[in-house]
């Protein structure tokens, strides 16, 4: 979770998620059309918490369908508060994974059967480590798996590196990949032309799915608190939490 796109002034009503006219035209897809019966679901998150931001609602729906689930967290998210004495990297490396456990519990994920792999790669340096990340992901994939990860053009270096690395790993192993936009939605509408609208599909969420996802997002106390002493705003900004209230999630097929 590294919201560079919310830190550089790209805020306000004219963001892709709430102003792009193409959103209304995106076809709906059922989770069973994304994941065949019996297939294992593998969610590859650049940082702890990205699994909730990207597909917290979809995870709930797939869990009801009783798909085996594996979560791979590539980093521990320890670079989310650079320069902070309140949230130093040493503290975040412990806290962020703990917050993810609580968030998954709030989503209703079967923690007793969930396999969770932690990569331990350097937060903020995944573009440099992309080849190693790809090899790491491939080690935990199987033919026939269905993987979900961040879009390779999402707008932050770590998200994009993991998207590319996951695509390479899936091609190598024979797994199927879907990509999920996260920070791309918080770009100005004029940049919406970069989004592959023809590949986009909506996964519908009911009010319970949305409520659970928001409840899960609020498990990330470290991301809801910035550090005023150094002018650092909350990582989970108001705009992002508002977007999470939408009754759908978008998958690129």
UniProtKB/TrEMBL annotation:
Pfam families in UniProt: PIG-L (PF02585)
Superkingdom classification of source: Bacteria
GO MF annotation terms: hydrolase activity, acting on carbon-nitrogen (but not peptide) bonds, in linear amides
InterPro entries listed in its UniProt record: GlcNAc_PI_deacetylase-related, LmbE-like_dom_sf
Chain coiled-coil ranges: none
Record's protein name: Acetylglucosaminylphosphatidylinositol deacetylase
Source organism: Pseudomonas trivialis
Lineage: Bacteria, Pseudomonadati, Pseudomonadota, Gammaproteobacteria, Pseudomonadales
